[in-house]
Write a structure and sequence with these properties.
263 residues, alpha+beta, 5 helices
């Protein structure tokens, strides 16, 4: 009897140890895509003005990771935006409808430094979206986060680069469109990067059905006027289309003309 009791006690203790192990066993640490997805699911149903803490936490995860990733890259690797974009895509790979992310990257040599633009649009409805663009500078084996901007909410994100001005600064236009009541709205901002910060030099906000064309010497924005468009549609006519043409100058963009053009 004593032997049987001892055996039962050992079995009970063993079961208790197993139960304790199961209870204390911690889940494996979440990797970056899981962390981002766990945060992104909290965006569902949020209005844009309520989303800041969550989108800010995602931004920190992404930008911290990209700085580590860029610093660890082989310095002999060919400069290209493709691996940067793929790394961003991998970070967001677990997102699923209605949450989405559209990565946008660029790589530009500049004054002996390699500049890498890490940008993305993060959205959770067709209308609620935020944008982030970070510029990293890599030189002498060191990578630093040089500047961050958030462009404008509720748009997508694109880059157009301008010729280098006499100052040698990097200049590019961030532009994107957002959904409107009947036509998309274009917003474009010209940024100047001097190595330390991104400074806006010019902007065109909410151009109705706007389209932008960046050439070697000029920038053209074509658009409609909403009230004229509505009246024309009501009467079965074609509305006037307008073009604002800008000359690229050392100071930024200078308006040449703004007049109507054939539809």
């Amino acid at each position: 009897m004593r032997a049987v009791g001892l055996l039962m006690m050992c079995m009970a203790l063993g079961a208790g140890v197993v139960h304790a192990k199961k209870k204390k066993a911690a889940p494996p640490p979440a990797d970056l895509p899981h962390k981002i997805n766990n945060l992104a699911t909290q965006l569902k149903g949020l209005a844009l003005d309520e989303s800041g803490p969550t989108t800010g936490a995602i931004e920190k995860l992404v930008l911290d990771h990209m700085q580590e990733w860029l610093a660890a890259r082989d310095p002999k690797a060919e400069p290209s935006d493709v691996p940067v974009r793929r790394e961003l895509e991998a970070a967001f790979e677990l997102l699923h409808y209605p949450v989405f992310a559209w990565p946008r990257a660029f790589v530009r040599p500049w004054k002996g430094t390699l500049l890498t633009g890490v940008g993305y649009t993060l959205g959770w409805t067709d209308y609620e979206r935020v944008n982030v663009v970070a510029v990293y500078a890599t030189a002498a084996g060191e990578t630093r986060l040089a500047a961050v901007t958030h462009f404008v909410p509720r748009t997508d994100l694109h880059y157009e680069f301008l010729p280098v001005p006499p100052s040698g600064d990097l200049r590019f236009i961030l532009w994107g469109t957002r959904l409107g009541r009947s036509q998309p709205r274009l917003t474009a901002i010209l940024y100047d990067f001097d190595g330390q910060s991104l400074k806006p030099l010019w902007q065109d906000v909410d151009a109705y059905d706007g389209r932008i064309d960046v050439g070697p010497q000029t920038v053209a924005v074509r658009y409609l006027r909403e009230d004229e468009y509505v009246r024309a549609v009501q009467h079965g006519d074609k509305p006037a289309r307008y073009e604002a043409l800008y000359q690229i100058t050392a100071q930024g963009l200078q308006l040449v003309h703004d007049h109507d053009i054939p539809f």
